[in-house]
């Protein structure tokens, strides 16, 4: 077992974990953060995307021990004082989801995209989200959601 200390959604946590434990497993199984989901076993779908020190990562592709000392934000840490994050609100307003399985990862990736490029073109949005798969929407409303969020002030 290896001792890790990190901050998750604003809360400091300390745990002993097996060195092989994935960050996504740690979040879901140890912390109960089941808003971060697992959609594949090949690092392809992006459903498990979280922010590690402010940058989006696929949490199935990171070991929990690699997050030692880091700040992790999941979809469950976005809303503040009962108010949805702007990007969450935009996905709701623009119907950027159907079954919702890809949505946590899409939103976390969209925030990272908008942080780096506050006014992305449609093409830049599509490229920025290419690591996140959606089986339902055909992506059009997801792109609209990100455009709407950009128009509203982006990743803030
Ligand atoms: S569960 Fe991480 S990329 Fe699919
Ligand atoms: S809304 Fe169902 S997978 Fe994207």
Automatic annotation (TrEMBL):
The keyword Transcription regulation does not apply. One of its GO terms (molecular function) is 2 iron, 2 sulfur cluster binding. Residues 2-78 form the 2Fe-2S ferredoxin-type domain. SUPFAM superfamilies: 2Fe-2S ferredoxin-like, CO dehydrogenase ISP C-domain like. Keywords: 2Fe-2S, Iron, Iron-sulfur, Metal-binding, Oxidoreductase. The keyword Transmembrane does not apply. Pathway: Alkaloid degradation; nicotine degradation. It comes from the Bacteria. This is Carbon-monoxide dehydrogenase small subunit. It comes from Nocardioides psychrotolerans.
């Amino acid at each position: 077992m290896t001792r890790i200390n990190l901050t998750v959604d604003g809360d400091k946590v300390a745990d002993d974990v097996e060195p092989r434990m994935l960050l996504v497993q740690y979040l879901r199984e140890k912390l109960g953060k089941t808003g971060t989901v697992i959609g594949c076993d090949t690092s392809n779908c992006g459903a498990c995307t979280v922010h590690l020190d402010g940058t989006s990562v696929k949490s199935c592709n990171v070991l929990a021990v690699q997050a030692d000392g880091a700040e992790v934000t999941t979809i469950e840490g976005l809303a503040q004082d009962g108010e949805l994050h702007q990007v969450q609100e935009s996905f709701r307003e623009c119907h950027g989801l159907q079954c919702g399985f890809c949505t946590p990862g899409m939103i976390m990736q969209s925030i990272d995209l908008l942080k780096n490029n506050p006014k992305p073109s449609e093409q830049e949005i599509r490229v920025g989200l290419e690591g996140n798969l959606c089986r339902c929407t055909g992506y059009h409303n997801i792109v609209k959601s990100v455009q709407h969020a950009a128009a509203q002030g982006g990743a803030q």
